[in-house]
Design brief:
This protein is an all-alpha fold and about 100 residues long. It has one domain. Helices cover about 70% and strands about 0% of the residues. Helix 1 runs antiparallel to helix 5. It is elongated, with a radius of gyration of 17 Å. The termini are far apart.
C-alpha cells in the first residue's frame, strides 16, 4: 500500500508549478504528468481544472486514496487568492492598454 500524499504539498505544487504538471508526478500520475509537462498544462485549462479540484478536495492520488490532511480553509484561501490575482492582472492590463491608446 502506498503512503498517502499530503494535501498541502499537492496544493502548493499545483499553485506554483501546475503548468508543468509537477503535482501529477507527486500524486503518482506519471503518464498524465508527462502529458501535462509536454502540453504546458493543456495550455492552462487542464492546470486550472486540477487546481480547482485540489482546492475543493475533489482530487485523489493515483492509488484512489484521498489526499492526506485535507484543509478546506487553506484550499478556499488559495482559490480566492488566485481569483484576486487574476482580477488584479486584468485591471493592470486594462490600465496599461488604456494608457497606450491615450498616448497615441
Amino acid at each position: 500500500m502506498e503512503s498517502k500524499k499530503n494535501y498541502t504539498a499537492t496544493l502548493l505544487l499545483s499553485f506554483f508549478l501546475g503548468g508543468l504538471g509537477i503535482h501529477r508526478f507527486y500524486t503518482g500520475y506519471i503518464g498524465l504528468g508527462i502529458l501535462q509537462l509536454l502540453t504546458a498544462g493543456g495550455c492552462g485549462i487542464w492546470t486550472l481544472i486540477d487546481f480547482i479540484n485540489i482546492c475543493f478536495g475533489n482530487f485523489k492520488a493515483a492509488d484512489g486514496q484521498a489526499l492526506d490532511e485535507y484543509n478546506p480553509t487553506l484550499g478556499k484561501t488559495f482559490f480566492f487568492v488566485w481569483v484576486a490575482l487574476c482580477l488584479l492582472s486584468v485591471i493592470m492590463y486594462a490600465t496599461a492598454f488604456a494608457e497606450i491608446f491615450r498616448s497615441v
